[in-house]
Each structure stands twice: as structure tokens, then as C-alpha cells.
């Protein structure tokens, strides 16, 4: 296990975020355990890129002086795998909210599913979900959305370098995507439904890579907490 000085000088911790945990909760828990282990009042800990509660996978945590490197990690290319469910949308574009509309899917073929991915390769305009942590007038968009306020979300440029369908088990479609910073995979799922003249939402998501970092090298959260407590 690392020493107090090593944590303060700066470490990059790779954590495989569990389902239902927020990224903020993971940071808080690790910070708390480090403080408890060394009986210290303060230690800087931050994460390099939020994962939604219903997503799992690679979360980069930086400690001590390495928190200054967070921006450079956030800017790196990311890889995700996941599942899109066709034929229905939700307000949050994922399973955090209930289905609000259903759409016909009888016209969708496997060929059209594979072909639809081509529309998203390269630099594209994407609207972030209304249920996101982006801020408008000092408030998080999801706070405004939950309060029932109408909010106009502006699109922004993102880049998708790879979008691959890995399995079709209708109405569920599994995929792998490689994309730039700022890409919302929930929005990609929603827009994918539109591209198929239907509706869709994200039903599973896992971040597998950030730059050269891989989830294969990440600690399980529970296991790492036990190491800190040992």
C-alpha cells in the first residue's frame, strides 16, 4: 500500500466504478479512507471525467499534487461498450427515468442498424441530455429538468472515431464506441433511434478506456477500500 507522502505527492488510481455509485461518491469514499488510514485532516482527491450512476467502468482518480493533471486526463479519447434498446425513449435517455414514448420498430432491419452507425462517424453536432450535470445560469441542467423547467440545450461539436455494433438481440443492440471528450453516449443512443426513424435509449454502459488507461488494469472499488483499511 502507498504511503501518506506518496498520496500527497500525487497518484493516479484506476477504479472500476460499480453500478449505482456516483463518481462523486467514489471520490468521497476513497478520500475518507485515505484520511482515516493516515489520521490526516486533508488530502486532495478528484476524478478525471464523470460516469453516470447507471454506468460502470474506468474512473481515473488523482490524489495530492496530481489533481493538477485532471484536465489533461479528461481531454483524452475514451472507449465505451454498452447496450441500446430500440423502440422507446426516456426523458433522461437512459434507465434513470421511465419510458415516456414508444415507437414502431417493424421497419428496422439488421442492415439498417449497421448502416445507421455511419451517420455518426467523424465530427458531429450533439445535444447533451437535459438530464446532465452541465450548468446553465449557475444551476445543473438536471436540477432544472427535475423542477419541470423548459431548458434549451445547445448542441456542440464532438468526434466519434469508431462506432461498432457488436451484437443484435432485438430490440437490444450492443455496441462499442471510441469518442472525444464531451461525448454523451446517452445522446448517441437517443440520436441513433432517430436515425432509424424510431426511438431508443441507453440501457447499459461501461467505460473501458481513457487514453492509454484500461479498465482491465483498474481496482475493484470494494477491494481497494479493504486494502486501505488493512
Description:
The protein has 7 helices and 14 strands. The protein is α+β, with helices and mostly antiparallel strands and 230 residues long. Strands 1, 2, 3, 4, 7, 10, 11, 12, 13 and 14 form a 10-stranded mixed beta sheet that branches. It has a two-stranded antiparallel sheet with strand order 5-6. A hairpin with a 2-residue loop joins strand 10 (156-169) and strand 11 (172-179). Helix 2 (23-38) runs parallel beside helix 7. The mean pLDDT is 93.
Low-confidence stretches at least 5 residues in length (pLDDT < 50)?
A: none
Helix count, DSSP H or I runs of 4 or more residues = 7
Task: Round the Cα radius of gyration to an integer and report it.
Answer: 19 Å
What is the overall silhouette?
elongated
Order of helices and strands: HEHEEHEEEHEEEHEEHEEEH
Number of strands: 14
The protein's oligomeric status is single chain
Give the helix proportion (percent range): 25-40%
Strand content: 25-35%
| Largest sheet data | 10 strands, mixed
Provide mean pLDDT, rounded.
Answer: 93
How far from one another are the termini? 9 Å
Structural class: alpha+beta
Short description:
The chain is α+β, with helices and mostly antiparallel strands and 230 residues long. The chain has helices at residues 4-9, 23-38, 70-74, 110-116, 141-146, 185-195, 221-229; strands at residues 11-17, 45-47, 55-63, 78-86, 88-89, 101-102, 122-126, 135-136, 139-140, 156-169, 172-179, 200-210, 213-214, 219-220.
